[in-house]
Amino acid sequence: MSLDLLSKVGIGDETALPPPAHRGEVSVEQALAKRRSCRRYLARALSLDQISQLLWAAQGLTTPDGRRAAPSAGGCYPLELRLVCAEGVFRYLPEGHQLCKESDRDVRADLAAAALGQEFVARAPISLVFSAVYERTTSRYGERGVRYVHMDVGIAAENVHLQAEALGLGSVAVGAFDDAAVAKVVGLPDPEKALYIIPVGHRA
Question: How far apart are CA 53 and CA 163, in angstroms?
Answer without folding.
Answer: 8
